[in-house]
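sry for the spam today, last one i promise. struct tokens for design, 262 residues
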């Protein structure tokens, strides 16, 4: 029996040929499909030939990308397994236009796991989440309460990932279908890292994990997400556009600090 990556690669190759318009397989010798056979079978009253009935659905039902993602994510026993599964997952079209898989950064043993939205151009280029101006601001925000992605102590560390591991074209928002397809990998990611608390950065993270948008209304209140206490917060990119939101972000950071000190 073929292993799962080989099966996925074969399916991806067939889907590519279908998308390119391939509708038949060519043989080495030409075939005239309009030519009649030289002799036709004679069917009399005594013929024993009976009509053949065909089942209406003889082809297997095609698995959806979300189903395959659930299967692959569920088989991952470690974070390295999960990264490898994402690397061979071919059902998300965003992968075709991305430079790098953006998996995670920081300390997987950290008490805080930050979930962002989708990679930007800088993140796609470097293969790490939260770099560029938004990443610098995020580092400053958490440094203000004594946390850092490169901290030596697990207690003071951060672990950072995104809802989407590949950059959408022109930094557009991922579609609900794309988020639903990749959600099984995120759910497994949280289960394997097993942080004490989640921070949901921005509308896309809230929509994917909570099924709700409107971070302006959600922020400032602790909720339960993926079995963990979670704090929705403004994305650092939003703070760069509207400095007035920084006061609310600081209040949320203080609430997170209080949780950690408990």
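last one done:
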């Amino acid at each position: 029996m073929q292993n799962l990556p080989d099966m996925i690669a074969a399916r991806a190759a067939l889907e590519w040929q279908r998308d390119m318009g391939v509708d038949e397989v060519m043989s080495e010798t030409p075939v005239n499909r309009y030519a009649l056979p030289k002799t036709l079978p004679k069917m009399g009253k005594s013929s024993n030939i009976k009509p053949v009935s065909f089942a209406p659905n003889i082809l297997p039902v095609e698995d959806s990308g979300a189903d395959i993602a659930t299967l692959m994510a569920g088989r991952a026993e470690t974070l390295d397994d999960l990264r490898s599964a994402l690397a061979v997952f071919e059902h998300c079209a965003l992968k075709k236009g991305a430079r790098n898989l953006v998996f995670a950064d920081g300390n997987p043993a950290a008490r805080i796991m930050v979930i962002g939205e989708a990679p930007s151009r800088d993140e796609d280029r470097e293969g790490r989440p939260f770099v560029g101006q938004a990443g610098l601001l995020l580092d400053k925000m958490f440094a203000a309460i004594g946390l850092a992605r490169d901290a030596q102590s697990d207690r003071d560390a951060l672990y950072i990932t995104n809802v989407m591991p590949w950059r959408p074209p022109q930094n557009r928002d991922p579609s609900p279908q794309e988020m639903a397809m990749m959600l099984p990998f995120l759910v497994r990611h949280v289960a394997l890292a097993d942080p004490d608390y989640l921070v949901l950065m921005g509308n896309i993270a809230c929509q994917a994990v909570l099924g709700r948008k409107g971070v302006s209304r959600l922020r400032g209140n602790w909720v339960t997400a993926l079995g963990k206490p979670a704090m929705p917060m403004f994305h650092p990119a939003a703070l760069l556009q509207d400095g007035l939101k920084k006061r609310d972000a600081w209040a949320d950071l203080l609430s997170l600090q209080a949780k950690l000190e408990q």
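The two ends are 52 Å apart (CA to CA). ok im logging off now
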